[in-house]
Amino acid sequence: MIEQIFYALPFLGEGFAVTLWVSFLVVALSLIAGVALGVGLVYGPAPLRWAVRILTDTIRGIPILVLLFFVYYGLPAVGIQIQSFWAAVLALTLFKTAQVIEYLRGAVASIPKGQEEAAKAIGLTFGDSLAHVIFPQAFRRFLPPWINGVTDAVKGSALISLLGITDLMQAINQVIGRTYEAMPLYVLGAFIYFGVNYALSLASRRLEKRFAFIRE
Fold first, then answer.
1. Distance (Å, whole) CA 142 – CA 135
2. CATH code at 190?
């Protein structure tokens, strides 16, 4: 068993690098898009709010696997050619963006309305009130669930192996096809995923304590 594990390590290392890269892209892109659309959902005009709400509810109601296959097979069907890697990143980013929008909406909604009214009373513009009053407080509420959501992105990245992308999960399956030793490799893969997600969970708890707001 030890021999199979040492044999598999180089292949699993390459697959793990792909997993981390996909996870990083999904987290970064969804954070940018989610914050922008979240602000539109909370403060935008009615047509924009309705559009973002429909988009969010629709994406959140679709299983990740279905969304993955829809992007991978659906876009080429309408003439949009996309590589499997970027199809996976796009699908996971769409799903994660819908979650980030809800994180932001909930964080901003938790700020008392009096804070915004006080900002107006002292002459702050809308942008200044967001930057200096609302967002600094909402950030404390936004950060813990967002980091927990990052662990979901790492776990969800295992599905990209179904598109033929050699991530950690696909690398494990390839090595199993050569060694015919499934259990040790799946256990090793589980420990790798657990190590990453446990580290993120610890970071989430520490940040939650660091940015904990005072409860009356």
1. 9
2. 1.10.3720.10
